[in-house]
Amino acid sequence: MASSAAAFVEGGVQDACEDACSICLESFGDADPAVITCCKHEYHLQCIIEWSQRSKECPMCWQALSLKDPNSQELLAAVEHERAIRQSRIGVFPPEGYELHRVS
Ligand SMILES: [Zn+2]
Ligand SMILES: [Zn+2]
Question: Which positions fall inside the RING-type domain (predicted)?
Fold first, then answer.
């Protein structure tokens, strides 16, 4: 592994490691392989899908988010589509498992 990136880590830049997902900061592995965006950034599929529910931009460079792998992109689009439906139905998007405890 090249250590030339180490110089940048001194300043506290956390995403200097290219083998880690910038969303959860966990490294990639066989169980959690990386997916590559069209802007050439790598994330866990699970992470970028979760991210896509909050933002349509890449968290690294803020370009429009799309994935190189057509299957992954299709999945991402499907999740986004579902979010759009949910949003139009209820107006707001509470997180999964969110409960309203209303004391009357
Ligand atoms: Zn991740
Ligand atoms: Zn990017």
Answer: 21-61
